Amino acid sequence: MSLNKVMLIGRLGRDPEMRYMPSGDAVCNFSLATDESWNDKQSGQKVSKTEWHNITLFNKTAEIAGQYLKKGSQVYIEGRIQSRKYTGKDGVERTAYDIVGNQMQMLGSKNDNAPSAAPSYDSYTAAPPPQNNHHAAPAAASYQAPPPPQQQRPVADPPAPVEDIDDDIPF
């Protein structure tokens, strides 16, 4: 038995890049920053470290991310690690590790992530694309331009919060 599962909460380091494969499947790529901090035992100073993750989303999840996320948006991504080999400009073969997401949840306030006409859902789970070991990206010229946005129905305002909540909540 084996398990390849990743769960990340972070902020987008750049706006998502949308493209469409010749098959019509949507693909969205962006970088995600995760931070950790601790106090250095010797100096007592707070130390921070940022990790950058390359995220790839497919199909409906990709379309939602491309439409509603932007640089700085906070998001939860769940998926798997996938490696790919490439040759650098210096001729040296390298390995890159990407996160292929199959679940995304937008975090933070609506203003952080989406325009006011955003759908009322905060998460979307999609089946991952079919697996094959031929993930060589087609030339950029073979991608189609994204289709024009679809007309959406207005989303009803969420119900107003109840101000009369008991303090007996156990958490």
TrEMBL record:
Molecular function per GO: single-stranded DNA binding
Keyword Cell membrane attributed: no
Segments of this protein annotated with the region Disordered: 107-171
Main function: Plays an important role in DNA replication, recombination and repair. Binds to ssDNA and to an array of partner proteins to recruit them to their sites of action during DNA metabolism.
Assigned GO CC terms: nucleoid
Oligomer status and interactors: Homotetramer.
Source organism of the structure: Conchiformibius kuhniae
Signal peptide (from-to): none
Comp. bias (Pro residues): 145-161
InterPro entries per the UniProt record, alphabetical: NA-bd_OB-fold, Primosome_PriB/ssb, ssDNA-bd
Tree of life domain: Bacteria
PROSITE patterns: SSB
One BP term from GO: DNA repair
UniProt feature, compositional bias: Low complexity: 132-144
Official protein name in the record: Single-stranded DNA-binding protein
SUPFAM superfamilies linked to this entry: Nucleic acid-binding proteins
Keywords linked to the UniProt accession: DNA damage, DNA recombination, DNA repair, DNA replication, DNA-binding
